[in-house]
Each structure stands twice: as structure tokens, then as C-alpha cells.
Amino acid sequence: MKIQKNQEYIVDIIDNGYDGEGIAKINDFTIFIQGAIKGEKIKILILKVTKSFAYGKILEIISASKDRNNVDCGTFSKCGGCTLRHINYEETLNIKANIVKNCLYKELHRNIEVKNTIGMEAPLYYRNKLQYPVGYDKDEKPVMGIYSGRTHNIIRTKQNCFIQNEKCSEIAKDIFEFAVKNNIKPYNEKTNNGTLRHIVIRIGIKTNQIMVTLVVNNDKFNNENKFVEELTKKYPEIKTIVKNYNEKNTNVILGNKNKVIYGNGYIYDLLGDYKFKISPLSFYQVNPLQTEVLYNKAIEYANLTAKETIFDLYCGIGTIGIFASDKAKKVYGIEVIPEAIEDAKENAKLNNVENTEFFAGEVEKILPKLIEKRNISADVVFIDPPRKGCDNITIETLLKVEPQKIVYVSCNPATLARDIRLLEEKYELKQVQPVDMFPYTSHVECVTVLELKEYI
Questions:
Q1: Burial class (CB in 10 A: 0-12, 13-18, 19+), 191
Q2: Catalytic residue among 73, 315, 411, 446
Q3: Considering the chain, what percentage of its residues have pLDDT values greater than 70?
Q4: Is 411 an annotated catalytic residue?
Q5: Which among 269, 250, 290 is positioned nearest to 435, based on CA atoms?
Q6: 274 near 351, Cβ under 8 Å?
Q7: Exposure b/e, 339-349, CB count within 10 A at least 16 = b
Q8: Contact 382, 298 (CB under 8 A)
Q9: What is the tens place of the pLDDT at every residue in 300-341?
Q10: In the chain, what is the greatest distance between 2 CA atoms, to the nearest angstrom?
């Protein structure tokens, strides 16, 4: 039986996929159905058919999973964020562990033991960073909200988002209302015209300090002084306001140029026993409560004795390296964003950490120079790359210098599995621990440990 578009079928959901979608089979032909849960029987409509799989949508749930929840969010069906909000939280943790396990099996061709995902006690309002696009709706009216799944259509927020910090959501609404009242034009992606592109708000969860970043296409932000005065009077928690200039027709949110219009251009937050400076372009984990869990687990797995030299690759503002500094002899951090490296150096001073050095540049270029020109070798390497994972030069360098242990922190199990396959030339995979940094989304963070193989 050939699967056809616009046809209806009754299917059994046999698994959940990489993005949390349900998976069904009709005569061994794979169907992906958003919103379906393993174990359910549903009636579907086929939306699209390719040579090797199809997409369907739910028409009727004939037999529901015991793990199905009543969704409490008004934008769930359109938003591309919390794709697992219809599933019991404990079951989402199982799904994420299985996602990691399946990615590892696909690359390594064997079953790998994956520990249970470490979840949150209260998985609500956990994000410390809000990023709302500003644009126009289908009626050409200004709109702020969340992108619809796999599109750049902005869905207007009808209520506070259940994963965003509530104070940040409140401030974002006030900024948008000011923009509308003062005729500050939203950005138009099609014409590359307009002023306000994104509203980005960061909060230090433990310090309660807030940074507002207005991503603008030009300098036509009307009544700027009035805006600063009104916003900071209402919200004294706001310590700085920054205009970030992004004039390119791109999907990248932030540009490279900042102008501070209030405060000093940064805020502070606390992680564990350490204080960290955060600037607009700095990478800082969006869930600080789970970040402490993640970093403590990484350092636990490193099993440091205060005698080790450490490389902290893709170090951001120095969080992992500084976390590990009191248990290491020396820490060398590398990060491509110069502003983040400046923050890392200041964070080391701020916390009286004297055994760290930080270098700005691409990891694949800086790491070989440290090894070859400064004759530095590492006992333990921490890796926390972007979603694309490590580049081949970095992998080859690690295989060449053979650190005793690699602790790989990843936000993408697919590229993690790919890199582990390459590293297994000389390393043995010892631990795989998923951590739920992004509850109710399909994303999962992992701490993995690889140890150098012993050769006889």
C-alpha cells in the first residue's frame, strides 16, 4: 500500500523521535506525527510524503497514552518551543534518555548504557534569557511573541510563557507597548526595513539583576531617553540597557556592535560559590539551577586531584574552568568570542582565581598553538561546543596529544555521538549522563566521559 498525501490512516505510535514527535509505520514506511506519544492509537492525515518517510497530523486520538497531559498553554499548538508539554514530565525525561541512546547507537552501532535524565523539581519559569522577535502579523499590525514551529511567523503571546522568567516576560510586554505607542517601527524581514528586531532580556536568578538588550536595525528608536527613564523607574532591577546593532538580513539574532544607553553594559549572577559577569554577547547557560547540576556532574566525572592541567575548550565566560579551578593545577580556556574572553578574565579576578589563562580565537587554531609553541599538555580536557560539535582539527589534535580524560558537555546528542565515534580511535566511553536543561522542549544536555585506552 503506497502512502498518499491527504489520505487518512489509523496507526499505532511505536516510538518518539529526535524532536519528540511520534513515530508510526505503515508497511515499514515511517510516518512522523507531531504531538503523538508512544503507545497511542491515532487517526492521522498525511501532510507530506517523501521517498523514505512522511509527515502526518493527528485527527483523532483513539487510545491515549497514560502519560498524556492536558496542555495548559494557549500557544502550544503553534509555538515551536515546548514541543513536549503534552507529556507527563517524568516521561519526557525517559524520552530524552532514549534520544541520547538512539543517537549513540546510530553512530557507534552498539547499545550504550545511558543514565536516567536528571530533571528539575519545579520545571517552570526556568529560563534566565528571553528572546522575543518583533515584526508584523498577517494583518500588518506590530506583533511580539514566539516563532511558530519551523517558521518565522511570530505568534503573539496570549499569556506569560511557562518556561520564561515571569519578570522578564512582564518587562518585554512593557517594551513592546512603548515601541507601539512611540511609533518605533518593527523590523520587516522581507524588506530589511524597520527598527526593532528583537527584545532580549537576561536576569541573574540569584542576584535579581536584569539586562535589557534591544536588537535594532537602525538608530530610529524614538524617545530613547524617555524609554530609559520610564523602564528603569518601574523596574529598578534593570541595571543596564544596551542597543545591539544588527543590520544584516540574517537569522542570527545579535550583531557585533553594542551601544550602552544605561548602566555599565553587564550584570552579574552566581553559580555555586562563584560570581560571573554577563555581557550581551556572552554565552551563559539559560537554566542556572540545572547548570550547577551539569557542571558539578562534569567535575565529579573528571575526578580531579589538584595536580591536573586542564583545557577548557569553547569556554564562554569561563564558567566550567573557574568551577574546576580549585581542584586543578592550571586551567587554559579558549573561546572564539573576544567579549566572552574579556568576561572570563574578569570573572577569574572577581573570584580570586589565579590559576587560569584565557585565549580568544577559534579552538582549532589556538589549541595547536598552545600545544606546539608553548609546549602545554593537558591531563583533562573539558569540551562544551556549540550545537555543531567539534571540528575535525580539534578532534585530530586531541587524538594526537592524548589527554588522559575528556569530559564532553553537549547540547546536541547527534553531534556528540559523531564526535565520540571519532574519539573512540583512542578513547573508551565511560559515562553518559543526560541533564534536563530545557524542560518540556525536545532539547537535552549531556555530560560524557572518555578515558584514554590502555595499550599493552
A1: exposed
A2: 411
A3: 99
A4: yes
A5: 290
A6: yes
A7: bbbbbbbbbbe
A8: yes
A9: 999 999 999 999 999 999 999 999 999 999 999 999 999 899
A10: 74
Sorted by where each starts, the structural domains of the chain and their CATH numbers stand as 8-68 (2.40.50.140), 129-271 (2.40.50.1070), 287-452 (3.40.50.150)
Cell numbers at residue 373, please?
609553541
CA pseudo-torsion sign 375, 378, 382, 383:
positive
324 neighbors 302 (Cβ within 8 angstroms): yes
67-100 pLDDT tens trace: 999 888 878 878 878 899 999 999 999 999 999 9
Between the alpha carbon of residue 164 and those of residues 148, 167, 171, 224, 383, the distances in Å are 16, 9, 12, 26, 27
In Å, what is the CA distance from 59 to each residue of 9, 16, 34, 188, 366? 10, 18, 11, 35, 54
CA dist 11 and 110 (Å) reads 29
3-state secondary structure 386-423: CCCCCCHHHHHHHHHHCCCEEEEEECCHHHHHHHHHHH
Spatial strand order in the sheet of 15-16: 8-12, 41-49, 53-63, 29-33, 22-26, 15-16
Grid coordinates representing 317 are 565566560
Q: Is the pLDDT of residue 455 over 80?
A: no
Residues in the chain: 456
Question: What are the tens digits of pLDDT across the range 166-207?
Answer: 999 999 999 999 999 999 999 999 899 999 999 999 999 999
